[in-house]
Amino acid sequence: MGAGSPRPGVGPPDGGWGWVVLVACFVVTGFAYGFPKAVSVFFRELMRDFGAGYSDTAWVSSIMLAMLYGTGPVSSILVTRFGCRPVMLAGGLLASAGMILASFATRLLELYLTAGVLTGLGLALNFQPSLIMLGLYFERRRPLANGLAAAGSPVFLSALSPLGQLLLELFGWRGGFLLFGGLLLHCCACGAVMRPPPGEAEAPPGGRARRRLLDVAVCTDRAFIVYVVTKFLMALGLFVPAILLVNYAKDAGVPDTEAAFLLSIVGFVDIVARPACGALAGLARLRPHVPYLFSLALLANGITDLSSARARSYGTLVAFCIAFGLSYGMVGALQFEVLMAAVGAPRFPSALGLVLLVEAVAVLIGPPSAGRLVDALKNYEIIFYLAGSEVALAGVFMAVATYCCLRRSRDTPPGPTTGGASDTEDAEAEGEPESLPSGTQEPRSLESLEVPSPRAGSVGQEREADPGRSRESV
């Protein structure tokens, strides 16, 4: 299945088959983020059949999300070892098998292992490789591509929940799980179209590049450290308002139907905001400053939470939903673009896996803690203040750390041997320099965030100098 050695002068095509890859990434992103939430429509029937409480039943979605985030390093290793397409095909089969087996479950433990572990792992093995492949196909239009792919999350969430309710009414939860399992086979179709770009190999042919399955050296890069800290702070509070919004509105005296419609407002604005923000970030004047746009989106989201903590009228809540959906969509559209620009394509698989692992820890801390505080204090206002402060702090930290590290990089002259290399490059210069894949320039720590990514021409020149080596990641 390998595509052979890289061809001189070949860079990301920014179109062509890349649009097919983008559609597949849109579908996979929609399943990855929408499916764990859509399964919640079956919870009431599961509680009745298994005689369990809501918290016990909700562990199905929690385990699914934990697998999606927490198995990031495993997915990175598999992608580096086998390539994106085989991993996605296997992930689609696992996700489908998990839901099909769950339809025969007789105990909650069996649901945890099938719908939770198997389906969650399958979604993880689809989500991460699809983002990696998207980065290989797009360079100049990458912000737009990331924004369009990220729009799959609100679109699928809006579609899967009503579909699940319809299947529940027609076939019961077992029939719904069975049909959802068949629906997840579309992930296999998405994986099948993930062929490598021209000149790229399906997987590394061997040697030292294959042995370094997880590039932990990326953890020494300043850009990566700043991004990880930002994502951890962000994940502590970003999802809390959306989770508590409906109950918060009901507590303010809003009727049930109108309270539920608030989430639809957030979803609609989110659908529009993600591709629009991606297109905006791709403009020539703005793309070098994408990290600051990301910081601005986080700060806007945090301020929205803080300013709406005491909202009691329905009109004020609608205004909050519009502002929250806009800033939330901006964050979703820019988060992976910032990471790609910071670490570069070769290190992106390892970096993404490690980031998702850190985010899993934050997600397991933030929303559950918020729920416990609501139960203990019976006060939503404090929760909105806390969540908004965490997200706003993430935005301020990202902007300040980026600015400070950029000044440090510019004030420090490059050494005679490193030539201004990043921290990661310095660490690897003492180890195995030849294990880095050719065809991509190394990012220069935080300075890489403000410099537009290299064009295909420079990539081709490097490949001409060393045409016999292939990309490590895919």
Automatic annotation (TrEMBL):
Compositional bias (Acidic residues): 423-433
Location within or outside the cell: Basolateral cell membrane
Span of domain Major facilitator superfamily (MFS) profile: 18-406
GO CC annotation: basolateral plasma membrane
Regions crossing the membrane: 16-36, 57-80, 86-104, 111-138, 144-163, 175-194, 224-248, 260-284, 290-307, 314-336, 348-370, 382-403
Molecular function in Gene Ontology: monocarboxylic acid transmembrane transporter activity; symporter activity
Membrane topology: Multi-pass membrane protein
Biased composition (Basic and acidic residues): 461-474
Annotated keywords: Cell membrane, Membrane, Symport, Transmembrane, Transmembrane helix, Transport
Region (Disordered): 409-474
Annotated Pfam families: MFS_1
PANTHER family in the cross-refs: MONOCARBOXYLATE TRANSPORTER, MONOCARBOXYLATE TRANSPORTER 3
Recorded family membership: Belongs to the major facilitator superfamily. Monocarboxylate porter (TC 2.A.1.13) family.
This protein's name: Solute carrier family 16 member 8
Gene for this chain: SLC16A8
